[in-house]
Amino acid sequence: MLLNSLPYTRREIVSSKYIGALIFTGLFMCYTYLFDFLLNGKQVAVLWKEILLIMGLVMIVISFILPISYKFKTKYLTIAIMGLLGVYMVIINYFVPNLNKQITTVVQNFMTVQEIQLYLIVSLLIVLIYIGSWMLSVRIYKRKAF
Fold it and tell me: Which of 12, 93, 110, 133 is 20 to 30 A away from residue 103, measured at CA?
């Protein structure tokens, strides 16, 4: 309610969260890789795949979290997150015990791919999902009554 009392449009409020998330992620990655370079001497030229993977994952997660957080109240989000955590634990314990290892294998295989076109297509797809989520969040937030 405080944000809505300020002289900003609802579109600007939503857009600031999406842009702020990207800026924060970028700054955090720069900070992390700078200290990794200073401490371990890891070459930055090799890291472009890691940076692309991290930014892509953050954008996908934000694309789902923000519209849901605009649509539902915090109480319902907490219940949903606890429920998803419970489902994840049941899946790991009873159905797919090596799920984390399989996810790690998929990520490692993705990181070893040398096809630039694949990276471009995946990046474009992630950007389109992010923009679609942004527009959906603006629409949800404009219709929300306070």
Answer: 133
CA distance 103 to 53: 14
pTM, rounded to two decimals: 0.77
pLDDT digits (tens, 9 = 90+) for 117-128: 888 888 999 999
Checking if the pLDDT of 146 tops 70, the result is: no
Q: Please count the CA atoms within 13 angstroms of the CA of 104 that sit on its side-chain side.
A: 4
Closest residue by Cα to residue 14 from 24, 5, 4: 4
Length of the chain counted residue by residue: 146
Task: Looking at the chain, list the stretches that DSSP marks H as alpha helix, in order from N- to C-terminal side.
Answer: 2-5, 10-40, 48-71, 74-90, 99-112, 116-143
Helix axis angle, 48-71 to 74-90, nearest 10°: 130
Query: What's the token pair of residue 77?
Result: 């989000």
Q: Which two tokens stand for residue 139?
A: 């629409």
For residue 113, give the amino acid letter. V
pLDDT tens digit sequence for 54-72: 899 999 999 998 999 888 8
